[in-house]
Amino acid sequence: MQSTLLSRFTGCLIGEALGDAVGELAFSARTRDLLDSEVEKAELLRYTDDTAMALGIAQCLVESGSVAPEPLGRIFHANYSREPWRGYASGPPSIFARVQAVGIKYSEAASALFGGRGSFGNGSAMRVAPVGLFYHKSPELYERACESAMPTHTHPLALDGAAVQAKAVALAIGLPPGGAFSPRSFLEALEGFARTTEFRSKIRLALDLILSGASDPDAARTLGKSVAVHESLPFSLYSFAKYPASFRECIYCAVLNGGDRDTMGAMAGAISGAYLGVASLPGEWREKLENSVLFSELAASLMHNLPLS
């Protein structure tokens, strides 16, 4: 049981990084054949800020057992300062600069974005997978996922999106390995967990698209694929729920249909890796992933420091 859980924790973190890295390549290699070729030619599969921030959350959980916004914000800030080239969008750097210049809290700077509405970008959900792992049995999962968003995202949609993605990871861990998978049960559980009408309706729509046999390009156009969390996370959920048995097919669905490819790959990859376990991820991809030992070490540390349920 412990070995299975560790495999799923490791699969989740590595799955996120692989989906992120392969998705980044898909911005230029936009067909399956081209993407296969680019992955094969790559000496190193390099992840972006999506995974870097997920590692920051895992680091915070291991060090403090929580994702309180200010300590987490400091970790995000330090990691950005060390590796600013990871591909961060404008939001986090502007928050970090304002905190440093004015001395306010990270969550306060985040809430001032976009005219005081806060960001509803998918950055809150792209990095939340370690929260789904750490709190997978906790009734506090929703609140802890929201906490992890607060250093950079305070809009209700961003908070709900982070919670839905964390719940998807938690559900994936709890499903029997190799058992029958029900897209209906999985997506209906997420629909019931979501608290905004936008996410409830999009998750229901994702299920309807799967049950009706819609094509993946049509599903992407219908659900959305932009940097807005409610226009990219639903398609990532669709990608996993339609292709639960194959990590590769799940990722190709998430990244080869346009839009914010690396982030949709990261979100879908985290769920798929949590469900399938690390051994089911493509070995030739895992061998090329940068810092792969770090992911395994953090997965083990998260598992060994789980809160009492």
Please provide a written account of the structure.
It is a single chain. With 309 residues, the chain is mainly alpha-helical. The chain has one domain: Orthogonal Bundle (ADP-ribosylglycohydrolase fold). Helix content is 68%, strand content 0%. The chain has 19 helices and no strands. Helix 1 packs parallel to helix 16, helix 1 runs antiparallel to helix 17 and helix 3 runs parallel beside helix 19. The longest helix is centred in the N-terminal third of the chain and has 24 residues. It is globular, with a radius of gyration of 18 Å. The two termini are 17 Å apart. The model has no long low-confidence stretch (mean pLDDT 97).
Structural class: mainly alpha
In the CATH scheme, what's the topology name? ADP-ribosylglycohydrolase fold
Q: Quick one: how many beta strands?
A: 0
Q: Spans with pLDDT under 50 lasting ≥5 residues?
A: none
Please give the radius of gyration in angstroms: 18 Å
Mean pLDDT across the residues is 97
Element order, helices and strands? HHHHHHHHHHHHHHHHHHH
CATH architecture: Orthogonal Bundle
